[in-house]
Amino acid sequence: MKRKSSSREEWAAQIAALDAPVVRKEPITVDRIVTTALALVETEGFAALTMRRVAAALGTGPASLYAHVRNKAALDDLLIGTLSRNVSVPTPHAARWRAQFVEVCGQLRDQFLRYPGIAQAALAAAPANLDTLRITEGLLGILLAGGVAPKPAAWAIDAALLYVSAYTVEASLRRHPDRAEDSRVVDRDEILARLRMLPVSRFPHTVEHADKLNSGEGHERFEFTLQLLLNGL
Amino acid sequence: MKRKSSSREEWAAQIAALDAPVVRKEPITVDRIVTTALALVETEGFAALTMRRVAAALGTGPASLYAHVRNKAALDDLLIGTLSRNVSVPTPHAARWRAQFVEVCGQLRDQFLRYPGIAQAALAAAPANLDTLRITEGLLGILLAGGVAPKPAAWAIDAALLYVSAYTVEASLRRHPDRAEDSRVVDRDEILARLRMLPVSRFPHTVEHADKLNSGEGHERFEFTLQLLLNGL
DNA sequence: CAGTTGACACGAACAGTGTTCGTCCGTAGA
DNA sequence: TCTACGGACGAACACTGTTCGTGTCAACTG
């Protein structure tokens, strides 16, 4: 009972606590951290994912997070693990192996695009994470069922996952250029105009085929690339 | 002459300046900044590339750099521009277009690998930079000479450059894991051991072909992927 | 030759980052 | 009932990119 020297503020806080004594502040868990972090990335992009901002969204300080997550890097790993868990891998169907492969990669792509810039973390954590290994396993099953030899299959999967990450990183940067205007170009017509502006003497092919260089509606280019990879197997 | 209140330190500095009055401090230029930055990245990795550290290496403070470089992002762009300028694109030879394509991509890969982690900047600045456009132009010439249609050529180039960046980013992170030991695995045998440790029930294919998953000496996988892309054209 | 101008260098500061230390406290076990 | 322990967290450290204002030197101008 040595708290006889409590300040006025503490006293007021104690009185205020009388109102809601039962609804104890919900404890911080890894799940709550991950959920909050994902919401933050979804609305403000990966660059805004900060220990401080996650903590603030949880109504606490940054130090509180380190009891549940070793690192910012560890948090990133958790995020891409969660995203990977959202990808469902079908049971291999020998006749449709190409379509199945593209479909799984497309799921991953959509997950990454939903949380802009998070693929940067995926590039860092690729091989270590258990949840991404589940996807690798699934893709391997699909390719093996399609009659592809193990080694080319493994290498093609690696290339495809790398491509998915790079594709989504680039797509996110194009849409979310930090501050709407600042030397970064977003508009596609603008890019086309700049390509046409190049000196024909030094960039003959680029100028001539400028329209093809940045063409492709939706994810046409994405699927084109994957088909390219698969057709070579 | 209102400097009569100079402190003792200033006085000492003035005396010291008598020794070398002619060798005026070399002015800061964009070239010196780029050279210093590249040396820094080469020895300590892209994560160590800091305005402050570049400035310190030049014997000044960070504010001095902003007279020559708008941003850290602008500096990054300059760096990958310089690296791109080191890549020499051959004049297209119709019969050897595949080899030429792979060779150019290999040059770019080696540039990126020499400066660990710098490919992260390449992923961000890809389409805007003039020097990388020179490479795109060269690759386009090679593919067109090989008889590839413009649109597939353009898309394949995009995919290949994306893959080069992703490949080098991942390779750099594997070699340079921030702090030698900290949940990140470097050793290849270690990765293999961990893959074999997986439960066979859930990861049958991964366990069975673990040795193929991370096989490939040198840049075998790199060239395999590029060949895959090219064979589909 | 004297004087002004303008570009560059830079010290100091601001707002923000990841991470750690030490303290508090509430709950569970003895 | 007392104790130990693990989570919560305030404060601080060492950084980051960037800006403001001041200084200082060079070259052009009258």
State the total count of DSSP E strands of chain A.
0
User: Which structural class matches the secondary elements of chain A?
Assistant: mainly alpha
The CATH topology of the largest domain in chain A comes to: Tetracycline Repressor, domain 2
Sheet having the most strands of chain A:
none
Please, what is the CATH homologous superfamily of the largest domain in chain A? Answer: Tetracycline Repressor, domain 2
Q: Indicate the overall shape of chain A.
A: flat
Uncertain regions spanning at least 5 consecutive residues of chain A? 1-11, 19-24, 178-185
Q: What's the domain count of chain A?
A: 2
Strand content of chain A: under 5%
Average pLDDT of chain A: 85
The oligomeric state of the chains shown is homodimer
How far the N terminus sits from the C terminus of chain A, by CA atoms, comes to: 77 Å
Proportion of residues in helical segments of chain A: 55-70%
CATH class of the largest domain in chain A: Mainly Alpha
DNA-binding region (chains A, B): 50-69
InterPro entries (chains A, B): Homeodomain-like_sf, HTH-type_TetR-like_transc_reg, HTH_TetR, Repressor_TetR_C, Tet_transcr_reg_TetR-rel_C_sf
Domain HTH tetR-type (chains A, B): 27-87
Protein name (chains A, B): TetR family transcriptional regulator
Structure report:
- 2 copies of one chain form a homodimer.
- The first copy, chain A, has 233 residues and is mostly helical.
- The first copy, chain A, has 2 domains: 10-69, Homeodomain-like (Arc Repressor Mutant, subunit A, Orthogonal Bundle), CATH 1.10.10.60; 88-231, Tetracycline Repressor, domain 2 (Orthogonal Bundle).
- The first copy, chain A, has 12 helices and no strands.
- In chain A, helix 7 (130-145) crosses helix 8 and helix 8 (150-175) packs antiparallel against helix 12 (220-231).
- The N and C termini of chain A lie far apart (77 Å).
- The relative contact order of chain A is 0.09.
- Chains A and B meet through helix 6, helix 7, helix 8, helix 10 and helix 12 of A and helix 6, helix 7, helix 8, helix 10 and helix 12 of B.
- The first copy, chain A, binds a DNA duplex (30 and 30 nucleotides) through residues 24-25, 27-28, 50-52, 55, 60-64, 66-68, 71-72.
- Chains A, B: Keywords: DNA-binding, Transcription, Transcription regulation.
- Chains A, B: Residues 50-69 bind DNA.
- Chains A, B: GO terms for molecular function: DNA-binding transcription factor activity; transcription cis-regulatory region binding.
